[in-house]
Design goal:
With about 260 residues, the chain is an all-alpha fold. It has 12 helices and no strands. Helix 9 runs antiparallel to helix 10. This is Probable 2-(5''-triphosphoribosyl)-3'-dephosphocoenzyme-A synthase. InterPro entries: CitG (IPR002736), TriPribosyl-deP-CoA_syn_CitG (IPR017551).
Length: about 260
Amino acid sequence: MSNPILMQLTKFATKSLYYEVTLSPKPGLVDRFDNGAHQDMDFFMFIDSIESLAPYFYEYARLGFEHHGDLASLFTKLRHKGIEAERDMLEATYQINTHKGANFSFAVLLGATGFYLQEHSLPFSFQDTANVLSLVSQMTQHLVQQDFSHITQKNDLSHGEKLYIKTGVLGVRGEATQGYPALSNLLLPFLRDHTGQENTEVLLLRGLILLVSQIEDSNLLHRGGVNGWQQVKQRGMFIHESKLNEYDFRQSLTSFNQELIEKT
């Protein structure tokens, strides 16, 4: 029988991915309007991908909720389940990587949340959220060393592994190891400060542009190199700091998106 609290977490996670793909316009990314700079995926493929992953979100939370032991062993359980989820995702998307990073992040975030809920309850305070992110950091402290220590001996490298060899960028592993500072230091404070001031889509789009202006984007680095990533980052910073009204903001995102499409 399903645990109603864990089902609530599953719904939150699934809804967040639907929100993300539905947000429009998103410069260079798949949304309701177009495929952005991606020629191998579209909106409907993202829907299929989300549907394939959603059942695993419950499993991630359950593994954490039922775990008794150290956090490193919890991570091992989550990684094994995450590999199953990725396999189903790739089958649903004809081997296109739509949500590999999201799948990893939700595995550790939901696993840590489930673990935390053994002794705490929803709804979470800001401090509860910070505590969960700290658990994620503790759970993944070994990850960079474990995954990258013998990386040059591997034959079949992922995009993230190739990027690490080339640039030293740690990607989603680095974010997790640090407790997702892009969330704790950037996005969550922004959303908390601005919720209720604009409609949900505009608020989330502004949050997206804030992230674009600040974070290391491993996907952009892989596709466009350091120069391409820096250009996108600078444009994001300009849009964010311009504090445009909704109409002009949407227009600037549309123009930005078209520029990125033309570069592909």
